Amino acid sequence: MRTISKIIPTTFFAFCMLVTHGMSFKSDSLRFEVLMSSKMLNDIQINARFINSLGITSNRLILLSTTNQFYLLGWGGIEPLGKKLGGNIGSYSFTPDSLLMTIRNNELCSFDSLGNLSKLFTLPSEAMGISTGKYVMYVYDRNKDKQKNSLYVIAKGGKYAKLFEVQKPINSVVEMNNLILFSTENAVFSFNPKNNKLKALAALPKDKEIISIAMDTSSKTIYFSTASMVYALKDSSVVIITDQFGGVLRYFDDGLIVFNPEKKFLIRIVGLEENLVSKKQAMKVTADKKQTVDTLTNATIIDLVKTKLSDDLIINIINSSRVNFNVSVDSMIFLSNQNVSSVVIMAMKNAMKRKTSDGSNVSNH
To answer: Best exposed site among 219, 296, 323, 339 by fewest CB in 10 Å?
Structure first.
């Protein structure tokens, strides 16, 4: 199959028609358009259990999937796409030129001319996630049982390379200009492939896992969500978009699509920019500029600890950033009194040793 449009049912209208006619309700400056609900699915007797993934086709239709069946959502309703598939679909995304790439078990697959999933190559591990960049694809580990979780970039021709690894599962990946944004645990990070620098952009309380990120490139607004809330990060300020629901995010046509596969609803939020401008009670999290400075200091580490980031993630930031720590005995005592763990303090000491030994201002992996 060269493009998914080859097997799209002709009875579907464009996604923009669905947006125009979808049920909607307002909240302040925001408008919420219900594109799919559990009642709609029950009415047409679809009891599918969707996976935590969402795509938008070149025909502006929404692509959903169970572990063995794709579905297309449009103004004409929701219908199965093609036949049931073997294996276990875990994630999917369209390439920059609109080809559908699917991860099945530990295989990266595409559709052949008969509508069957065809293996392209074997991935490093099972149940990886996949997302689309401007020119490349990204696959990433999201297995909670793994000690190290990696992000890989895939170029044309199937060649891929590891960009970095962290100790916790990677839940979501998007591009922002020349940076890669990703979420793990309760935090959003940026990674610069040119200099391998890792920065913490925002963090929530430790019990709130960030499951998805989306990017509005025109306004440079980052959206991220938990299972029950949606946030926006812009100009180092974080605001709550809604505390009524959360899910998988996609930014499309000046609106934010939120898909919750467990509760079987899909909602599009519009009027976001007006809402961000007029929001009076912003929820400040860790988008503080002190956390995105070029050189890490003792004060930076204390700030990161206060946001309740895990030690593993803080150590990853230390090992991929410029550092200028004070590692005197008094400073170490002060850090300990500020709840900085001994393993983080040791990472700070090692980073300064590497800086001294190699004459560099950057600590390396």
So the answer is: 339
